């Protein structure tokens, strides 16, 4: 492999060394738990990027070509392990980012569910969103 796709010295930690082919079209970062959206277009994105953008009411569309799909895509295990092996530091960084994001989203949802508060704090005063 050439240096533009993998830097063995730093474990692939530098985002400049990540091949364009392994960049998510939604978050523009290293693919984390990559999925192939549909067989017709074959575009690849992060599992969580697609999960957050899918519609539960109607068919969803590929963010690149807008091709519709109605199934929930599964993680491409072969690509997942390849990326983990090629870019271990960057992949672990992405994993940590996703865990923090999901924890915040989960805790926020639990707080809203049990307190009924959906507003934001402004200068120490609670203000309900309209």
TrEMBL record:
Keywords associated with the record: Metal-binding, Zinc, Zinc-finger
InterPro entries: Znf_RING (IPR001841), Znf_RING/FYVE/PHD (IPR013083)
Entry annotated with the keyword Metal-binding: yes
A single BP term in Gene Ontology: proteasome-mediated ubiquitin-dependent protein catabolic process
Single annotated GO MF: zinc ion binding
UniProt keyword annotation of DNA-binding present: no
Domain RING-type: 24-66
Gene3D superfamilies (alphabetical): Zinc/RING finger domain, C3HC4 (zinc finger)
Full protein name: RING-type domain-containing protein
Origin species: Quercus lobata
Taxonomic placement: Eukaryota, Viridiplantae, Streptophyta, Embryophyta, Tracheophyta
């Amino acid at each position: 492999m050439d240096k533009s796709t993998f830097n063995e010295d730093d474990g692939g930690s530098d985002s400049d060394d990540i091949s364009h082919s392994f960049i998510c079209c939604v978050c523009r970062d290293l693919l984390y738990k990559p999925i192939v959206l549909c067989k017709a277009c074959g575009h690849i994105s992060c599992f969580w990027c697609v999960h957050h953008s899918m519609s539960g009411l109607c068919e969803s569309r590929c963010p690149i070509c807008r091709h519709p799909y109605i199934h929930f895509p599964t993680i491409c295990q072969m690509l997942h392990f390849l990326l983990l092996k090629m870019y271990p530091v960057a992949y672990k960084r992405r994993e940590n980012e996703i865990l923090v994001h999901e924890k915040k989203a989960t805790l926020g949802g639990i707080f809203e569910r049990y307190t009924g508060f959906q507003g934001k704090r402004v200068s120490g005063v609670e203000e309900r969103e309209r």
